[in-house]
Amino acid sequence: MMKKLQFEYSLKNVPRGSHQEYLKSLINRVEDFVSRVRWRAFFFEKQGEEEVENKVVDEKYGLRTGTRAPVVKNLIPFEKDLFKLVSAIRFRRHNNEFLDKLDRDMNSIISSPNVIVPADKTGNFYEMPVKKYQGLCRKAITAEYRKAPDDAVELLNTEASVIASKLKLNGRVQQYQSGSAFILMKDHKPGFEAKLQTRLINPAKSSLGKVSKVILERITSKLRPKLMCNQWRGTDEVLQWFKGKRSNGFKFISYDIEAFYPSIGEEQLLDRALRFVGQFIDISEEDWEVIHHSRKSMLFDMNGEIWHRKESIFDVTMGAYDGAETCEIVGLYMLNKVSSCIPKESHGLYRDDGLIIVEEPNGPKTERIRKDLISIFQEEGLKIEVSMPSEYINFLDTTMRNDGTFMPFRKDGKTSNYVHSSSNHPPTVLKNIPDMVMDRIRRLSSSPSAFQAARYHYQGALEQSGYKGFSTEYKDVARKGKKKRKGRRRVIWFNPPFSVDVETDLGRKFLGLVARHFPAGHICSQIFNKNTLKVSYSCMKNMESR
After folding, report:
1. Which helix (H) or strand (E) holds 492?
2. Secondary structure of residue 391 in the 3-state scheme
């Protein structure tokens, strides 16, 4: 009934794709680029460069206008030549055994009558009949959801429209996005083969979630320094915290918040967190309204039927635009509560994973910490699983020890598959992969010996993916921070898709068009030139997204 599949390569590899698929993608990219260029030229001709740069405009939260860009007379020759370039694209057949294999695998997958379902936390895939997949989806949906009224989505769209008008976002907020729910196989759970367990993913969401994401990011960036809590956003921040621990003899305690996302779906918990935030940062009524509206969620099954959670329509879905930011707001609220029994400098949280360093540990002390943690989270309706004290801890993708050392961590049996050197990626991307991988291993290693002990696995994975001649020496690698911009220069990027089967040098020809159509003295040369119109290749769909 169900067959386990394992691909011997990364599904981030990009296959050739058909010529028709490439041209369709290229046309979309050209249209998107032309639209942005037109808007830039339109406002420049209307107001002038200085006024465009200095004009105070209403916040748009990164939402694009639904209005079609106006035609600009001075851009017509450039646009015509750009579309001629598309029609003159020449293809060739690039001989590549790896891409041939991807093509065969893609054809096999497409021709299969069955459904291929990815696992939740492993690299496995499972092939099963359509009816079995539908049954598992139905079971997962009915366990947590119930049918919604027929007008539920219409009411959400009406409410979103009213909020958009208040924020002056008319024409920028789309209707509720109705992607069908799907499942992942939780094969990392004990007894999976005897009883299939799944994770339900709901991709449906409100586009106002993009606005909520910006609002919540601003709130958390202001709140973290005020609370002085350790809310981490990645392994690098965890290690930066850990490197500051100089004492010996401490022990680690970790905890995991069970079903964190669904638990935040309780409206009262988020409200308590926001009221707590309001003690430090002003949250306007409009911001509060946007955050709450973005939590109103519907689920669509494969038949288009509408569902919502059994308790209420209030939910934090895994695919929400602002899901991670909502999680961080509640996380800061919980970190502050935990600091009542554990010093802030000894405790931190990444999403739903917490880590504590206990100084001078003993049985009664660690047991008291465990009980206090459970009690604090229970008060907020959250359940946690607390680990036993240990001299080392596997946290995210690193192993830390109480002697101050650390090294990369990966789960037992988990393979490392990287994009193959013959994948249909832009050459610059492929060239940088080995150095990026090895630099990350260096950052996750506290010493040359830790790096040397860990590198063989990753070096072997890279070599298996076709890479050779990359450096395997240890060296200090500091994470590069963002460069401060010396001045404001608005660059518009043209991102044509890359394909090894395309013979035409699109990048060179595009830059040639820019030089020819916007020479010095052209009315638009101030805003359109080699420094403001640039090209960078994008990727076609990879195996995973097809």
Report:
1. strand 492-494
2. coil
